[in-house]
Design goal:
The chain is mostly helical. The chain is about 50% helix and about 5% strand. It has a two-stranded antiparallel ribbon. This is DNA glycosylase. It holds the Pfam family HhH-GPD. InterPro entries: Alkylbase_DNA_Glycosylase/TA, HhH-GPD_domain. One of its GO terms (molecular function) is alkylated DNA binding.
Length: about 290
């Protein structure tokens, strides 16, 4: 699958950055409310008795029998994160959910014979460096430069660590076809690792919202790059890349819209895909690819 990067200018993503972060914050806030709307489709939740609210009246009880009294009859909702899309069983679960929650998407899934596969196992630092190198380039040209980049390190891909990237000068990188701007992006990523702002361990533990906020601090990494990283490197199951042109075109065609949907409309239309919006997005790319071949 060829995905064209949209992080051409780090500053051009400000609008999408804000929309994504606000959307994620609203989602987390909504999940903590005491009740769900009838149309909500939050999966894998655990219900527990709500904690007792404060009251000015005194409650008397016998020592052997203690009862919690709450003025709020609504249960407390605890969201359990879905497992990553690294196993066939998880992908199968996602497909069943999408087919039952969205008739139109379900029909598309039925007509597509090959299910999605998410099998990249590269460490986060290598994946992010690769994302920077691939930006704004055709796949063939990007792979050529990436292979030259890997050849600079002892041990190949396993040798791509922050210290070794910092040791390469911009001149060294230009010799293999890396632009001066991308060289500065690679160095900034490596420095963020060296000073503790980022690490592979931290990245694996961060929430989706934290990843967007932290990774977009790196020069040259915008929300689109983070979304692709979360889907294809971390295998996060519930990522909706609202700024991706291919996904937007797929949603437009799937639902018969007149115009390309904006961030808010994307969130609204794809809400029913939760908690597997990454898989739904994968099918939007397949839908557009199929239309191109006709």
């Amino acid at each position: 699958m060829n995905i064209v990067a949209s992080d051409k200018n780090p500053n051009s993503n400000n609008l999408i950055n804000s929309a994504v972060v606000m959307s994620l914050r609203k989602t987390l806030t909504a999940a903590n409310q005491p009740s769900l709307s009838p149309g909500s489709s939050i999966v894998a939740v655990q219900l527990a008795d709500s904690e007792a609210s404060g009251s000015s009246s005194r409650i008397t009880f016998r020592p052997r029998k203690i009862r919690k009294v709450s003025s709020d009859p609504s249960p407390r909702i605890i969201i359990t994160a879905s497992p990553p899309l690294s196993t066939k069983s998880t992908v199968d679960l996602a497909l069943r959910h999408l087919q039952s929650s969205d008739e139109l998407l379900g029909a598309l899934i039925t007509t597509h014979n090959d299910p999605p596969v998410f099998e990249s196992s590269n460490p986060p630092f290598l994946s992010l460096a690769r994302s920077i190198l691939y930006q704004q380039l055709a796949t063939k040209a990007a792979k050529c430069i990436y292979d030259r980049f890997i050849s600079l390190f002892n041990g190949g891909e396993s040798g791509v660590v922050p210290e070794s990237v910092i040791s390469l000068s911009a001149v060294d990188l230009r010799k293999i076809g890396v632009s001066g701007r991308k060289a500065s992006y690679l160095h900034d990523l490596a420095e963020k690792y060296n000073n503790g702002v980022l690490s592979d361990e931290l990245i694996m533990k961060m929430s989706d919202e934290e990843l967007i906020e932290r990774l977009t601090l790196v020069k040259g990494i915008g929300v689109w790059t983070v979304h692709m990283f979360m889907i294809f490197s971390l295998h996060r199951p519930d990522v909706l890349p609202i700024g991706d042109l291919g996904v937007r075109k797929g949603v437009k065609d799937l639902y018969g819209l007149k115009d390309l949907p904006g961030p808010l409309q994307m969130e609204q239309l794809c809400e029913k895909w939760r908690p597997y919006r990454s898989v739904g997005s994968w099918y939007m790319w397949r839908l557009i690819e199929a239309r191109k071949t006709k």
